[in-house]
Please model this.
Amino acid sequence: MGATSSKGRYKVNDSSHDTSYLLDQFVSNQLLFEMYDNATLDYMQQAEENNDAHANYQLGNFYHHGLGYKCNKDLEKAYQYYEKAIEQEHPTAMYMICKLFGSDKRKNSQDCVKLMNEKKLINMKARYYIRSAAQDPYYSMAHEELGYHYVYSPVWRREIKEIFSSYRNIVKNSNQSSKEELARIYNELGYLAVRLNANEDQAVFRKAFDFFKRAAELGNPAGYFNIGGWLYYNGFGVDKDESKKLEYYKKAAHDGHPRALYIVANNYHFSYLESRNDELENALDLFLSASQYGFAEILYFIGEFFLYGRGGVKQDYEKARDYFERAAVATDFTTGRGNAWSNYVLGYMYEKGHGVECDYNKAAHHYALSAKKEYYVAYCRLAKLVEKRKLKTSDLYTAVELYQAAVDSDDDFAVCYALYRLGKIYGIPDSGFYDRAKATSYLRAAQANQLYAVKIQDTAVVGQLYRSGVMYEKGLGVSPNRELAIKYYQKAAELSKQSYNMFERYNGGKAQKCFDRLAFRGTADAEEANEEENIEHHIKENLEQAEITNASDDEQQ
Model:
């Protein structure tokens, strides 16, 4: 039967295999490299015309890893572009350039462009990591690696403490430094004060507050950002306060901090409700400002505005696709590669022909890339293309393996949908997988998850409500119940009308058709029953009248 996870999720105990080899067959390297090359041309133009910091960083990253046809791996070019980005304080470039330095004690230096003394190397890396992480921990893995080295390496720990002391001396002799340098150092002092305060001494946290505040006053918006994100968020040296955290994020955003702009934009944006269009206009303005550091997630959200025609812009599938394609290959926060949602939406656009010609192979390509980035709903969409024989690879075994990968995930929606599809596959007599007991087990697990989402968590989305309707109408894993089917169809249709999300609208449209069909049939059945009752009553009256007439005739005779 099934098992319940710690989160209340119901699963079927069925082992699955590694699916990376399954996904690879759907990925087109030509399509992928074309997207990298298109992005490269745009970044080159921005770097040439504006010396754009993020464009220089992205070009460095492409050359670093050899991405696309135009950027063959070239570590020297990567180094040069990173340096240009660092000149403008690009935090991710500071982290990535460290990957190109190595110790002169190394035997293999093929992945480095410069070798140096071990102590100098650690000092350089520590300084760059601090500069990067102090702007925001999510710009790179510098924050995590710095913490790891501080705990496990006495050499790193000593170097970091020496940097902290040297910065204290610099601010004591502040007349020898520029305003910009002082602002940066005060911010880094605040970061180090928090980072090194293992005993959580509140007096040290309050000193960090002073450092951050001074940095902000000198013109570094990261100071405000860190007051909100480190101090008020965690309650370090101050009372934990969400409203204060947001207040300081807004101050940082006002002064141009890219990630603060992104976070404040998300506060306005993170809703699909129609009533929030005025706030979405503010969100789009902030996202566009945040895109000075065009990380993948930011580009994705901008693409959404054009996809749906929200935030004061007209629907424009071409612009949306451009943003999604850029997001799919751009670096994301903490140096992740590309945005899984972008690939997923591109896959859906090609599957359904939204703004592009319907192309199932391109849809499969993007779903596979999204799945590789661990977006498990993409496994389901890819599996369904295989299941419904939309691709040359139409082996139902492949579809089952992909669905099982989604079942094994922690994505509630993907788990529900995959269980539902597997239940249907195992319930088809001529599928080659027919197993009535297994079909029932999968369908019951799917319904248990959907019921939990609806009744306990109150997090059910339109697709789950729609499938609950289907299951009650057709008796899939549950006893048929026409009234419950109508109820779920109606709820799904109504919920979808509050959303501009195309996935919600699509499932809501199907739910509406099912509701209309069942509700109309119910009305028609009732009318037919009334009509039959009227006919029977009329016939009965006629028969009674005939009997009376016959009796009268008999009496007269």
Q: What stands out?
A: The longest strand covers residues 2-4. The CA atoms of residues 32 and 68 lie 8 Å apart. The first helix runs from residue 20 to 24. Confidence is low (pLDDT under 50) at residues 1-8, 548-557.
